[in-house]
């Protein structure tokens, strides 16, 4: 039988709260790091979750701390935005008793700072399968299909299998990536043109769904971004991602507009963008650095950027 692990969740926003609560409900040994009013609210009332579609509300009591304890932990799951990563690493590098860190942030500039600060052998990367927003101290959330996890070397190691089993037990099905760094870059290549197009439409998915020209620009911008990554030798991860976006516009555009009219697009995309504008700006800069490396022509992306 696999030995039970001690889990530390660093960051008590939407995702950190959701994952910590579900791990606690699954019987795991959970400690959550929160700060300020969020720390006080969780300490007094637990983690309050409300499902976006059903309205079902749950309240979960977890062990909450305002700083990382000196105790040993098997796994620390880090839920911070990219703009918060540098300050988070200053804290995490002092946590010598943590065996493995799983970083869930978006990034287009790679894993260099993580490896330099914590050592390659202690790092996994992941991507959550949920989204939402916090209304006062209640987390409004929705989950999608599978989350993603990956070793930096792409291996299906024993530790990632053990960690995957716990995530799945807690209610988070997992897909293991063969190249998690490429996966992260392609995610930004997908999200960045979408965010630019959404900004042109008041950051409202329903408005954008009716704007055929901006949907066309968004899809072309995604294709251009994918070409930038291919130009520096990074193949699509997952492979199907590249295949989908090379479908012709007459096929893909109606599907994309249909997706934009859904609740998933509302809570998982539009609301996230409205709450993460600084992060998206940083990710745009990171990706534009890759565009400069390849000296690529990106007319659709250039047009989308005009409104910024």
Rounded average pLDDT? 93
Question: What value does the Rg take, in angstroms?
Answer: 19 Å
Compute the number of structural domains.
2
Strand order of the largest sheet: 5-2-1-6-7-8-11-12
Number of strands: 12
Largest sheet: 8 strands, mixed
* Alpha-carbon distance between the two ends: 54 Å
Beta fraction of the residues?
Answer: 15-25%
**String of helices and strands:** EHEHEEEEHEHEEEEHEHHHHHHHH
- Which second-level CATH architecture of the largest domain applies? 3-Layer(aba) Sandwich
Output the CATH homologous superfamily of the largest domain: NAD(P)-binding Rossmann-like Domain
**What's the helical proportion of residues?**
40-55%
CATH topology of the largest domain: Rossmann fold
Question: Which class of secondary structure composition applies to the elements?
Answer: alpha/beta
- Quickly name the level 1 CATH class of the largest domain: Alpha Beta
How many helices?
A: 13
| Bulk shape | globular
Keywords: Signal
InterPro entries: KPR-Related, KPR_N, NAD(P)-bd_dom_sf
Pfam families: ApbA
Organism: Tindallia californiensis
């Amino acid at each position: 039988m696999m030995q039970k692990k001690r889990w530390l969740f660093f960051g008590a926003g939407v995702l950190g709260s959701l994952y910590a609560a579900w791990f606690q409900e699954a019987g795991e040994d959970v400690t959550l790091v929160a700060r300020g009013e969020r720390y006080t609210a969780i300490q007094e009332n637990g983690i309050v979750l409300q499902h976006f579609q059903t309205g079902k509300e749950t309240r979960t009591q977890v062990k909450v701390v305002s700083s990382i304890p000196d105790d040993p932990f098997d796994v620390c799951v880090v839920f911070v935005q990219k703009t918060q990563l540098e300050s988070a690493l200053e804290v995490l590098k002092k946590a010598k008793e943590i065996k493995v860190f799983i970083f869930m942030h978006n990034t287009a500039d790679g894993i260099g700072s993580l490896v330099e600060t914590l050592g390659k052998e202690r790092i996994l990367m992941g991507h959550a399968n949920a989204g939402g927003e916090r209304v006062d101290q209640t987390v409004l959330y929705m989950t999608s299909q599978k989350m993603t996890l990956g070793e930096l070397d792409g291996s299906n190691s024993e530790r990632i299998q053990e960690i995957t089993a716990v995530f799945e037990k807690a209610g988070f099905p997992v897909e293991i990536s063969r190249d998690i760094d490429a996966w992260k870059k392609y995610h930004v290549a997908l999200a960045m043109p979408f965010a630019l197009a959404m900004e042109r439409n008041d950051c409202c998915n329903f408005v954008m769904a009716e704007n055929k020209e901006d949907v066309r620009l968004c899809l072309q911008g995604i294709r251009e971004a994918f070409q930038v990554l291919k130009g520096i030798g990074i193949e699509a991860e997952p492979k199907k991602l590249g295949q989908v976006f090379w479908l012709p516009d007459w096929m893909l555009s109606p599907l994309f507009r249909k997706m934009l009219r859904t609740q998933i697009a509302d809570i998982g995309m539009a609301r996230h963008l409205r709450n993460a504008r600084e992060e998206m700006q940083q990710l745009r800069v990171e990706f534009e650095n890759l565009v400069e490396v390849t000296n690529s022509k990106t007319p659709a992306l250039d047009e989308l950027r005009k409104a910024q």
